[in-house]
Amino acid sequence: EPEVTQTPSHQVTQMGQEVILRCVPISNHLYFYWYRQILGQKVEFLVSFYNNEISEKSEIFDDQFSVERPDGSNFTLKIRSTKLEDSAMYFCASSPYRQEKEAFFGQGTRLTVV
Amino acid sequence: AQKVTQAQTEISVVEKEDVTLDCVYETRDTTYYLFWYKQPPSGELVFLIRRNSFDEQNEISGRYSWNFQKSTSSFNFTITASQVVDSAVYFCALSEGETSGSRLTFGEGTQLTVNP
């Protein structure tokens, strides 16, 4: 069964460093998303991406964040200068263009900023 | 603005008990979708069910059942004859609009612990 894959599964970085989280969405999907879950809290929407541009972003998604689909398969989230409060699980998701709008989530990348 | 409330932070049951997880939502849209996801200790989000706002039929899938009531803006989830493997955090989520690409708004989640 096709699935969304994320790499790495866990990343530790020093405060102020740039990190890139990578995702390979399901191949025939058209919508891509990033969500964040701070430990013990709810899952929060960051950004959605369609047709090579951001279609919606939340107030969390400020200037330190950016997304890119550099080729036909990868979808990346870049955090320019990490802060301690960026420590969280980051989930990538994708969905096809259909009425049901089911979003398939990757297994997540746990980012730890030290 | 859309909002999802899961009032039960934690529930603890003994194996084989039935358990219901509550979800109440708020939206101004007439077209929306409701979801339940399971997050086991390993951390991934596992899709369980999707319901659109025009389909109030209850659904049963094995030991799982869902009760959607627009009149009370609720979408509750019942696990019958619970098992230890059901222990997880369960999230209810809402997406507004007719087409793909809309954000999911999650509730705070309910931590379910099933004890042997």
Note the beta-strand portion of chain B: over 45%
Overall 3D form of chain A: globular
pLDDT < 50 stretches of chain B: none
SSE succession of chain A: EEEEEEEEEEE
What Rg of chain A do the Cα atoms give? 13 Å
> Which structural category fits the helices and strands of chain B?
mainly beta
Average pLDDT across residues of chain A?
92
Number of DSSP strand runs of chain A: 11
Q: Whole-number average pLDDT of chain B?
A: 92
- The percentage of residues in β strands of chain A lies in over 45%
Order of helices and strands of chain B: EEEEEEEEEEEE
Q: Compute the gyration radius of chain B: what is it?
A: 14 Å
Could you tell me how far the N terminus lies from the C terminus of chain A, measured between alpha carbons in angstroms? 36 Å
Provide structural commentary.
The complex is a heterodimer of chains A (114) and B (116). Chain A contains no helices and eleven strands. Chain A has 114 residues and is mainly β. In chain A, the strands form two sheets. In chain A, strands 2, 4, 5, 6, 9, 10 and 11 form a seven-stranded mixed beta sheet that branches. In chain A, strands 1-3-8-7 form a four-stranded antiparallel beta sheet, with no helix packed on it. Chain A is globular, with a radius of gyration of 13 Å. Chain B is an all-beta fold and 116 residues long. Chain B is globular, with a radius of gyration of 14 Å.
Give descriptors for this structure.
heterodimer, A: about 110 residues, mainly beta, seven-stranded mixed beta sheet, four-stranded antiparallel beta sheet, globular, B: about 120 residues, six-stranded mixed beta sheet, about 0% helix
